[in-house]
Write the structure tokens for this entry.
Amino acid sequence: MKGHAGKNTWALFLLLLAGIVLGGFIGMLAEGVPALSWLSYGQTFGFDNPIVLNLGLLVITFGLNIKITIASILGVVISIIIYRLL
């Protein structure tokens, strides 16, 4: 899959995913540091109670919880900048 400018969209997807994960990890590490605690500020949303589908023989649990922090947003912005430079 090629984008409009001939760049690989899978590369953009992987860079965005890496930016989200690394940004979230940095935000989690920054919670205990007073000068960097603003990086962990954010909002969590999703299912409070997971949805359970009990079929007798098989039990399937569906759940989704997303936490967006300042650090994860910065990670996404940095990954987009890196993608544009490549």
About this structure: The mean pLDDT is 88. Residues 9-85 form one domain. DSSP finds two helices and four strands in the chain. Strands lie at 42-46, 51-54, 59-62, 65-69.
